[in-house]
Design a protein that fits this description.
By secondary structure, the protein is mainly beta. Helices cover 5% and strands 26% of the residues. It contains 1 helix and 9 strands, in the order E-E-E-E-E-E-E-E-E-H. The model has no long low-confidence stretch (mean pLDDT 90).
Length: 229
């Protein structure tokens, strides 16, 4: 097991944005993305990916580098050990995708549907989620470093035993999220809805705003088994 992420408490460092060539420098993929396949320097749209109507796509071990993925539908796909490096994912539907052990480095998700996506035991480094729907996202035992949630809905997110460093939120909806036995370092949760968070004691050291005190306090009271009568 890799060592836990180390980061002193304080203001989180922002994600490093992906380094992607200009659009005119990108080419359409010459082949479909396949298991253990590679897309490098491409601008891919729905025309370049298998349609969910054709059945569940199998993309285990696939890798995408320095590319833009736009409007692709890969709901319920199997993509274990997926690797994305310097990629912008815009307007894509990855709901229900299973990508255990994925590696996401300098990735920007914009306006994507990620409901129920499984990223357990994944590594997310310099990743931003902007205006996405990611209810029930599964990040169990994942390692997150320099991750930002902006105007993103993550109700009932599962971060059981996740290791999180440099997390920032801006208008994120984390209601009902599970953070039991997770570790947080340099987490700024101001602007997030933390109502009914489970395992709230794991948020030790995180920064919240006065407006969030009641919601987090109630979660801590419930976790301690204290009854208010």
């Amino acid at each position: 097991m890799p060592p836990p992420l180390r980061r002193r408490s304080g203001s989180p460092r922002p994600p490093t944005p992906p380094s992607v060539p200009r659009r005119e420098q990108l080419q359409p993929p010459h082949r479909d993305l396949e298991p253990d396949g590679l897309w490098d320097g491409v601008w891919a749209t729905a025309d370049h990916a298998p349609s969910p109507d054709e059945g569940v796509a199998h993309l285990g071990g696939a890798e995408v580098r320095e590319s833009i993925l736009e409007g692709i539908r890969l709901s319920s796909a199997r993509a274990d050990s997926l690797r994305l490096t310097d990629v912008v994912v815009s307007g894509c539907d990855l709901s229900g995708m299973v990508a255990d052990g994925a590696s996401l480095t300098r990735v920007r998700f914009v306006g994507c549907r990620l409901t129920g996506i499984v990223l357990s035991d994944a590594r997310l480094t310099d990743v931003s989620f902007e205006d996405c729907h990611a209810d029930m996202i599964n990040l169990r035992m994942a390692r997150l470093q320099r991750v930002r949630l902006s105007a993103t809905r993550c109700r009932q997110a599962d971060l059981l035993e996740a290791q999180v460093a440099d997390l920032s939120t801006d208008g994120a909806d984390l209601r009902g999220a599970t953070v039991e036995r997770a570790t947080f370092a340099a987490a700024d949760l101001r602007g997030a809805d933390l109502e009914d968070v489970r395992g709230a004691s794991a948020l030790r050291g995180a920064i919240i705003s006065p407006e969030q005190v009641l919601g987090v306090g109630l979660a801590l009271i419930g976790e301690a088994g204290i009854r208010v009568e």
